[in-house]
Each structure stands twice: as structure tokens, then as C-alpha cells.
Design brief:
The structure holds two protein chains of two kinds. Chain A is 72% helix and 0% strand. The chains are: A mainly alpha, B mainly alpha. Chain B: This is Leucine/isoleucine/valine transporter permease subunit.
């Protein structure tokens, strides 16, 4: 095969892996949107918050230590223990569930029946709030996250492709792990929503709030549940991104990237979120490789996804898999 | 009694429709205007102008613009930062290409250029709405910032990629560049704020403003009663972008003087202006001013309280600022969705009945 084509294939493969990450964030969006009609801008910040909490617990950091030190003039930073990864993850899940409860109790229970755009703006406020709290709790410096995931170039793929094409593909082990975990997560979610009582209740709520209420499903419980699941998905996304590029503020910007993913896939479709994520991931890497770098001066990844979504919206506003909205007066 | 309509007889249709129907309000407005125009320029110091007054005036224009689009016409935009960048860069290109042109013309022209760009990015609003549109405007935000970063024609091929405002005078007074005096900056901005607020107020209560509000309240119904959605939406985008462009131009030429696009006009700026109109009050001219004042004031107050008085590190105060802004957004959306403007309205209602509320 010619070199250019090989490069392009490698770029596309790496884009596919990046797309998996976008899909993970988009998945959290879709879950909340389906169950409560809330478009949760804070999903990316939740991933950041989860990752920071995980690192903080692992390292035994004292929450709000900077603030406490500033107020009381003390000098405490660490508890002095290192938690094992499993325990830290479990504790972080507990924190995310508490967060889900608090968000519903203090924000969205008061905003029932408001317009979607008001709810959206409330989640922007929530995003700012969470970001500030996360920084106050754990400090804003860039942290490394290590829960024992394999990293670095995958030797097997490198050597196999070298034998076949005479050119070794560079694929990160972490990306492969991320793909596998994302696939497991989706399978788990599908199984949960198909075969468990709560999952069925969740689908009922997504279908019709009032009908679900009238057969005795507690909306409050379902909302807390779905925010908890979204929190869990955020944690998984946070771990993956954190292991890849460190836990830092830019993590919350991937939330913005998830928006065009949803445009493409449709707001209400889980397969849509995944396919959309993959298309955006591959598309922006290939565009950068083929057009962005040689002709436009690079860094087209910043806007490609949005412009693609914008063009897409003009022709198919409901996305690839979304439900068509029919408006009547 | 002071705050009453009683005894203030209106004898013409125009008088009946005035912005401040109560004499006390009317006088208060002229007093504020006189203080701002005749007293403040003589006592304003560098610190006050740079930390509070000039940013307040500039953000007030941006908030007015976004409020026209989001508050009056119901089209959510997250591209304010990008449109401000258009205003700033067109002002820069005009200033360097036509050195003889005076600053008022430049500012207004850059507003018109931004309006044209705004209409272009407003085109998708004809097919989509709500947060779909919000994402479409995000595309504008990221694309425009990227473009001003990459296409070197926009920053005249300078090595740093920054743009610097050259020195320009207006009636013999330096208004841009590093040697500008505080009162000149302030007065120049004040001039635009007063004019534009007057324009905004009169546009929004006229035929065009009513069309916008009809589209906001229910677009299909508005279409049925004869509002042309194409005209209404695109005119809202044009007018709003004009305001935002003027504010971006002032932000660069008068306030900062040197700008790096990603830093000055990033996505954070879009959110800041959006927060201003949420906290101030959607669909209210006064709210745009109140929100801008509040969000300009808040970090300064926090800094004075936290860093100067309590001696906390600056990063903690910055994070607290985030927490407070976020909490306030949620608080206002839950408790008072119409923002500070509604609180002001309620206060005025109470004042009219005071001291006999029944």
C-alpha cells in the first residue's frame, strides 16, 4: 500500500479511539436527556470532578485543605494514606451518587416544568459551581491519574502491521482498553435497562413522565438514579481522559465536543451517541490530516466537529438516529 | 408623596408611552445621566476606570446585544465571544488600513461588519432552535477564534499574533493607545452606551421588538399572525451582533489596547455575557445594565475582601468566584427567573403603594 494511505489509515484508527472517548461523554448526556429532558452541560465537569475526587482519595488529600489552611492558618494537606484503586473508585462512586441526589434535591426539583433552555442554563450554572468546588476541594494543579491501566504503544499491533505492510501502526494500549471498557459499559447499560426492574422503570419514564407516574414509578427516584448512572459514566470517562492527558481543566471542554456528537447522533439515541462519537473522532483527525495541516495551518480540530454538526443540522435536524419532532399548533 | 403617578397628567399619546411614566423615575434618569456625563469624567481615576467603569460600560453593550437576541427574540447564542472578536479585529483592520478615519466611524463600521457576520451565522436559526441553535453558535465561536488565530492577514502578519491599537485622537483628545487618559476612555464608552441603550429601548418597544417577542413566545403562532420569521430572526441576529461588535471593538481599542484572541474572546467570554443577562434579567434593558454591573463588580469585591482584607491566596478567591457565580445562576433560575430586573420592578411596585400597601 502507498505510504499516504497507510498514514491515513493509522490516523483514522487513532481517530476511532478518540471517538470512543467522545462517545463516553455523549453517553452520559443521552442518558440524562432521555430520562428527564435536561440537557446536561455539566457532564464534562462531572467527569473532571469525578477524576479529581478519585485522585484526591487515592492520594489521601484532605478535601478543601487550601481553604481550611487559608481560614484557620493551619497547614494540613494529606491524611497520610494511599488508598488502593478499587477502594478509591468505590468511594468516588458514592460521592457521585451523593452529588446526583443533591443536584436533584436542590436544583431540578425546583425547576420541574420549566422550558428546556432554562434547564440547560441551570446546568451551565451547575458546571461553574462544580468546577469551582472541585478546584477548592482538591486544588487546581494538573494531576496524574494512575489506576493501573496499561499505557504506551501496543507492541503486537506494531509488529504485526510491520510484517504485513512494512509500516508499524502506532496505537496506544490505553485507547484499546478504553474501547473495551466503553463497549462493556454500553452492554451493561443495555442489559440494565432491558432486564432489571429499575431499568424498565427508567425506560418508562423516558417514554412518558405522566404515564410512568400513574403506574406508580417514583420520578424522584428515577432522576436520582439516572444522574447517578451519568455520574458513573462521567467517572469512567474521567478515568480514561485523566490517564491519557492528566486531570486538568481542559477535561471539561470535552463536554463541548460531545455537543456536536449528539447533534450528529440524535439527542435521544444511545447507539447514535456512539456512532456520532466515532464519526466525529475519525472525521476531525482525517480532516486535520488531509486538509487542516497542509492547507489551513492546522488546529482545525477545535472547530471541525461544530461546523460538521452545523452543516448536518441544516439537512437533518433530528440527527442520524433521533426521533423526528413534529410540531403542531 | 414622591413616587406616584398621581398628579402627573399625560396629555398626548407620546407622553402616555414614555419609558419612565413616573416623574421621580424620569428625574432620577436625568440625574444619573448628568452625574455620569458631567461629574464622573472629572473625578474618575485610572483604577476606577480600568477595574470597574470601562468594563462595566463595554459589557453593558454586549449584554444589551445578547439580550436582544436571547431575551427578546428567544434565540440562545453561545457565540458572543466570537462576535466580539469580529468587532475587535474589524476595528483593528479599519484603524490600520484607513489611519485618517475617526474612531466613532470605525467603531460603528466594525459594528456593521459584525452584524453581517452575525446574520451569516444566524441563518441556521431558520431551521433549528433551542440548544440546537446554541451549538450552531458554538460553531461560530470556535471557528471565528481559530480564524483570527490562523489567518495572519487579520493581525497584519505581526510575529506575536497579537493586535495592538495604534494611537488615535478624537477632537484632539487621545482615545486609543497606551497614552489614553482614564476620563477619555470612560467618556468615549459612555457616549456609545447612552446612544445604544436608547436605540435598544426604542427598537424593542416598536414593531420590530414586538415581532421578536412574538417569535420568542411561540414561533408558529407568530408566523400565523403574520410575523415573517425570516425577517424577525435575522434582524434580531443583525441588531444583536451590531451591539456585540461595537462592544468588542471598544473592548479592544479603548479598554485593552492589545489583544490575543483566544484569551480575550474565548468561550468563557460568551458564558460571562450570557450569565450577565440571566442574572440581570432576560428581556430587560435595565437587566442588561444590572447584570453587567453585578458580574463586573463581583470579582473586584471578592478580591478586595478575600485577598486584601483576609489575605487568602488569589487562586482560592478565583475558585470561590466560580462557585458563587454558578450558585447565583442556579439561584436566580430557581427563585427569580426574571433576574435583578424583576427585583427592581417589585421594589418599584412596593414603592408606589408605600406607606399604605392596602
Amino acid at each position: 500500500m502507498p505510504d499516504q494511505l497507510l498514514f491515513a489509515t493509522e490516523v483514522a484508527l487513532n481517530g476511532l479511539m478518540a471517538g470512543v472517548m467522545y462517545s463516553l461523554v455523549a453517553l452520559g448526556f443521552v442518558l440524562i436527556f432521555k430520562a428527564s429532558g435536561i440537557f446536561n452541560y455539566a457532564q464534562g465537569v462531572m467527569a473532571l470532578f469525578a477524576a479529581m475526587t478519585l485522585v484526591g482519595i487515592q492520594n489521601g488529600q484532605v478535601p478543601f485543605s487550601h481553604l481550611i489552611n487559608a481560614i484557620f492558618g493551619t497547614d494540613i494537606h494529606y491524611f497520610g494514606w494511599e488508598a488502593p484503586a478499587i477502594l478509591a473508585i468505590a468511594l468516588t462512586v458514592v460521592v457521585m451518587i451523593a452529588l446526583a441526589w443533591a443536584v436533584n434535591r436542590f436544583i431540578f426539583r425546583h425547576l420541574v416544568n420549566q422550558e428546556p433552555i432554562i434547564l440547560f442554563m441551570a446546568t451551565i450554572g451547575l458546571a461553574y459551581f462544580l468546577e469551582g468546588v472541585a478546584d477548592l476541594m482538591w486544588g487546581s494543579e494538573i494531576k496524574t491519574l494512575d489506576v493501573g491501566l496499561p499505557q504506551g504503544i501496543n507492541e503486537t499491533i506494531d509488529s504485526v502491521t510491520f510484517e504485513i505492510f512494512g509500516y508499524g501502526f502506532f496505537i496506544d494500549n490505553l485507547d484499546i482498553v478504553a474501547t473495551v471498557i466503553a463497549a462493556l459499559l454500553v452492554l451493561g447499560l443495555v442489559a440494565f435497562s432491558q432486564y432489571t426492574k429499575q431499568g424498565r422503570a427508567l425506560r418508562a419514564v423516558a417514554d412518558d413522565h405522566q404515564a410512568a407516574l400513574s403506574v406508580g414509578i417514583s420520578l424522584n427516584f428515577i432522576w436520582v438514579l439516572v444522574w447517578s448512572i451519568a455520574g458513573f459514566v462521567a467517572l469512567v470517562a474521567g478515568i480514561m481522559w485523566g490517564a491519557k492527558s492528566g486531570v486538568q481543566f481542559s477535561l471539561s471542554l470535552i463536554a463541548l465536543k460531545a455537543l456536536p456528537v449528539l447533534m450528529l447522533g440524535g439527542f435521544t439515541s444511545i447507539p447514535g451517541a456512539i456512532v456520532g462519537g466515532l464519526i466525529i473522532g475519525v472525521g476531525e483527525k482525517l480532516f486535520e490530516f488531509a486538509i487542516g495541516q497542509p492547507f489551513l495551518g492546522g488546529a482545525t480540530e477545535n472547530w471541525f466537529a461544530y461546523v460538521l454538526a452545523l452543516l448536518f443540522l441544516v439537512f437533518r435536524p433530528q440527527g442520524l438516529f433521533g426521533e423526528k419532532i413534529i410540531e403542531r399548533v | 408623596m414622591i413616587y406616584r403617578e398621581a398628579g402627573d397628567f399625560k396629555t398626548s399619546y407620546g407622553a402616555d408611552n414614555q419609558t419612565f411614566p413616573i416623574k421621580f423615575d424620569r428625574r432620577g434618569y436625568y440625574v444619573v445621566l448628568a452625574l455620569a456625563a458631567l461629574l464622573l469624567p472629572f473625578i474618575v481615576t485610572d483604577y476606577w476606570a480600568n477595574a470597574l467603569l470601562v468594563p462595566f460600560l463595554i459589557y453593558a453593550i454586549a449584554a444589551l446585544g445578547l439580550n436582544i437576541l436571547t431575551g427578546y427574540c428567544g434565540q440562545v447564542s453561545l457565540g458572543t465571544g466570537g462576535f466580539m472578536a469580529v468587532g475587535a479585529y474589524s476595528a483593528y483592520k479599519l484603524m490600520t488600513a484607513f489611519p485618517w478615519m475617526d474612531m466613532i466611524t470605525i467603531t460603528i463600521l466594525s459594528g456593521f461588519i459584525t452584524a453581517a457576520v452575525g446574520v451569516l451565522f444566524g441563518l441556521p436559526s431558520l431551521r433549528i432552535k433551542g440548544f440546537y441553535l446554541a451549538v450552531a453558535t458554538l460553531a461560530a465561536q470556535f471557528f471565528l477564534v481559530w480564524m483570527f488565530n490562523k489567518v495572519s492577514w487579520f493581525y497584519n502578519y505581526s510575529a506575536s499574533g497579537q493586535i495592538n491599537a495604534p494611537e488615535r485622537t478624537l477632537f484632539g483628545v487621545i482615545v486609543t493607545g497606551p497614552n489614553t487618559q482614564a476620563w477619555a476612555q470612560y467618556t468615549f464608552c459612555l457616549f456609545f452606551v447612552v446612544i445604544l441603550a436608547w436605540v435598544a429601548r426604542n427598537l424593542t418597544r416598536g414593531s420590530l421588538g414586538r415581532q421578536w417577542m412574538a417569535i420568542r413566545d411561540m414561533d408558529i403562532a407568530a408566523e400565523i399572525i403574520g410575523v415573517n420569521p425570516l425577517r424577525a430572526k435575522l434582524s434580531a441576529f443583525a441588531v444583536s451582533s451590531f451591539f456585540v461588535g461595537v462592544s468588542g471593538s471598544l473592548f479592544f481599542t479603548i479598554y485593552l489596547g492589545a489583544v490575543e484572541v483566544g484569551e480575550a474572546f474565548g468561550i468563557q467570554k460568551s458564558f460571562l455575557v450570557l450569565f450577565m443577562i440571566i442574572i440581570g434579567g432576560l428581556g430587560s434593558i435595565f437587566g442588561s445594565f444590572a447584570g453587567a454591573a453585578f458580574l463586573v463588580l463581583l470579582p473586584v469585591v471578592l478580591k478586595v475582601l478575600g485577598v486584601d482584607l483576609l489575605g487568602w491566596p488569589t487562586d482560592i478567591v478565583a475558585h470561590l468566584n466560580l462557585v458563587i457565580v454558578g450558585a447565583l445562576i442556579v439561584f436566580f433560575l430557581v427563585v427569580e427567573p426574571h433576574g435583578l430586573a424583576q427585583l427592581w420592578r417589585l421594589t418599584k411596585e412596593k414603592l408606589r403603594l408605600w406607606p399604605f400597601p392596602h
